[in-house]
Amino acid sequence: MITDDLFKNDSELNQIRLGEGTLLIRHFIASYASEIIKELEKITKQAPFRKMLTPNGHKMSVAMTNCGEIGWITDLKGYHYTQQDPITQRKWPDMPNLFRELALQAANFAGYPNFKPDGCLINRYLVGSKLSLHQDKDEKNLKAPIVSFSLGIPATFQWGGLKRTDRLEKLILSHGDVLVWGGVDRLRFHGILPIKANTHQTLGAQRINITFRQFY
Fold first, then answer.
1. Where would I find the beta strands (DSSP E) of 102-201?
2. In the predicted model, is pLDDT for residue 111 greater than 90?
3. In what order do the strands lie in the sheet with 131-134?
4. How far is Cα 182 from Cα 148, in angstroms, rounded to an integer?
5. Model confidence over 156-210: pLDDT tens digits?
6. How far is residue 151's CA from residue 134's CA, in Å, rounded to a whole number?
């Protein structure tokens, strides 16, 4: 169960405003990391991590899975959402209440009180994994924000503009950090540079990224 302790003293939270609609909150979920990891283990038993194919036939370096009512996938047909796991042909695992509550708290803190996540994309980065610059634009509802959790070893996040050629900012996302973006920043380009060798005491040499989306 989530307590109010994490949110009592906002001055203790290290907040970084990256844009009008974007807030990075350092260590926002750090105290819940062990509980989150336990829920992840349950999810990935039902829907294992897999490296999906892009529409041009390349295998992604990041392994992915989903939970919630709807999940994001990529295949030779394109980028899209499905209500079923294409591997198991079953619905995606339910989104844990803990995930939903923390995502709502983060969205509300960042100024998005009406966020209703129905999908949750989970990415696993190993050393050398990366995610090219892209926009999150496959959702029907582009007014809702994206809420992104970081766990495990650090990653270098690239934060751009509304054009792929816009100047990029680079910053480190660490264990327990939460990034929320929406509004005028909703379609900004972003990505992850190749993960550098490192080890986390709980997750080992990997980074887990959990992103919450409101498709409808």
1. 119-126, 131-134, 146-152, 155-159, 169-173, 178-181, 190-192
2. yes
3. 131-134, 190-192, 155-159, 169-173
4. 12
5. 999 999 999 999 999 999 999 999 999 999 999 999 999 999 999 999 999 999 9
6. 21
Q: How far is CA 151 from CA 35, 82, 83, 169, 188, in A?
A: 12, 25, 26, 21, 22
Exposure string over 96-125, b if 16+ CB within 10 A, otherwise e:
bebbbebbbbbbebbebeebebbbbbbbbb
* Structure-token pair, residue 204: 């080992």
Measure the CA–CA gap between 202 and 176, rounded to whole angstroms: 12
Element (H, E) at 106: helix 97-109
CB 117, CB 66: distance < 8 Å: no
Q: Locate 172 and state its tokens.
A: 């480190």
82, two tokens? 């499905």
Residue whose C-alpha is closest to residue 149's, from 194, 113, 203, 199? 203
Phi, psi of 70 (to 5 degrees): -150, 145
Contact 86, 73 (CB under 8 A): yes
Q: Provide the Cα torsion 65, 155, 13, 176; round to 10°.
A: 40
State the DSSP H helix or E strand holding residue 109, giving kind and residue range, or none if neither.
Answer: helix 97-109
Residue 9: pLDDT over 80:
no
3-state DSSP assignment of residue 69: coil
Give the C-alpha separation, 151 to 192, whole Å.
14
